[in-house]
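>> received
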Amino acid sequence: MRRFARTLATAALAATVVAGTAGWASADAQTAVTGPPPGTAAWRADTMSGRPLPDPARATPAEVARFFAGLDETGARELVRAHPLVVGNLDGAPLPLRYEANRLAVLATGEARFASLAAPGRQILAFDPRGRGTVAEVFGDLGRAAHVSVIVPGSDNDATTYDRPRAQYTGPAGMARSLRSATGDSAAVIAWTGYTTPVGVGLDTAQGRLAQAGAVRLARFTEGLDAVGAPDPVLFCHSYGSVVCGLAARHTDATDIVAFGSPGMRADSVAGLGTAARVWAARGPSDWISDVPNVEFAGLGHGADPTSAAFGARRIDAADVAGHTGYFTPGTRSLKAFAAIATGAGR
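>> returned
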């Protein structure tokens, strides 16, 4: 009866939002960045020693990796200089080439909002300036790491906000740095702000549209890690990012999926995710996400609470976590557990 009442409450809320604030909701709607990166048409028209270049929209990361394995250094560098936005986002391309290509791509935008991404020492694994911008950054040596984790963030993150100075442990880059430090720098960690996230609290956050587009990109990204020989990753999925991970779960080779501060994963149980990965869940006592009804009705809501016993995820102690974004704060039980999972010790 209680679940039915919550469903009715969600339906009433949805009706109010759509009928009473439709203009605000429309203005809040984000256009998902999808498809191959800018510059793809010029890339497709180019060749290398008479050979066609792998189509970013159709070639698998494994095929991309084989293509680059057949190039000499001169040819590879030529492609980086001629097509930085494509090479920088081409899953399966060698890591050093992607880092250099994205440095050039950032500089080529001439936009101050992206300039810090081209700073010396940064390892930008993906960058797309369209819209608010998407980005993925590597912390550690991805090419040699025995363990790899990917941070998948929630709302209000993009290429200019994901590494805010004031978000020392709460933004995607801050979470990545904190996790890497907690592992004793033994794991490489990727801050993957590689999809268009919702902004604020509107219909985008209650719907799965952006998460579905993000799931496609996340699945291909993890396939690209496999293509360059990186270990199977652990996915750390925060808030709306856990919706992305839930939809991508069956299409990734992740060893573990950790949902924290989650509104739901678009599944009724771990079995419904269709993954062989170990699934973990955490929620702090003061996390406002607990006030979000765990229902899915008329396309709104994201389903069951991953921390519920019925869902079947392995519970992580988050009793000392403050708020919705404090899970990576040094000294917390959640961070200690995350580090153990990231390095295989939590299995």
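>> DSSP finds 13 helices and ten strands in the chain.
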